[in-house]
Amino acid sequence: MSEYLIWHNPKCSTSRFVLQALQDAGVDPAVRDYQQQPPSAQELRDALDRLGIAPRGLLRRKNTPHDGLGLGDPALSDESLIAAMADHPVLIERPVVFGPGGARLCRPKETVFAMLAG
C-alpha cells in the first residue's frame, strides 16, 4: 500500500499536475477518483481534521451546484456542508494529497512541492 493517496479528478489540470509531480518525485500514490468513489461523511471529517481546515475550506464553488444548494448561507452548520460534499462530491475542492507528513489541499498546485520537501 502506498504511503500517499491523492483525491484526484482526471479532468482537472491542477489535479493532473499534482499527480505528475508526485510521480516525478518517485512517489507512486494510490489514486482515488473522488467523484467516482466519493468519500463518506466520516472520511470527509477525518480529511478535514488532517488538513486542519473547516468544511468551507474544502468546498468548491466553481462549476458546482454550490449556489443552487444554498451553500453560501453562513448559518449552515459544518455538518450540513459535510453532508452536501458527501452527497455531491463535485463540491470537494481538489486535489487533496495525504501522505506520511500530513495532508494538503494542493491549491495552488505548487503546494505539492512543500509536501514532498518534508
TrEMBL record:
<protein>
    <recommendedName>
        <fullName>Arsenate reductase</fullName>
        <ecNumber>1.20.4.1</ecNumber>
    </recommendedName>
</protein>
<dbReference type="GO" id="GO:0008794">
    <property type="term" value="F:arsenate reductase (glutaredoxin) activity"/>
</dbReference>
<dbReference type="InterPro" id="IPR006660">
    <property type="entry name" value="Arsenate_reductase-like"/>
</dbReference>
<keyword id="KW-0560">Oxidoreductase</keyword>
<dbReference type="InterPro" id="IPR036249">
    <property type="entry name" value="Thioredoxin-like_sf"/>
</dbReference>
<dbReference type="Pfam" id="PF03960">
    <property type="entry name" value="ArsC"/>
</dbReference>
<comment type="similarity">
    <text>Belongs to the ArsC family.</text>
</comment>
<keyword id="KW-0059">Arsenical resistance</keyword>
<dbReference type="InterPro" id="IPR006659">
    <property type="entry name" value="Arsenate_reductase"/>
</dbReference>
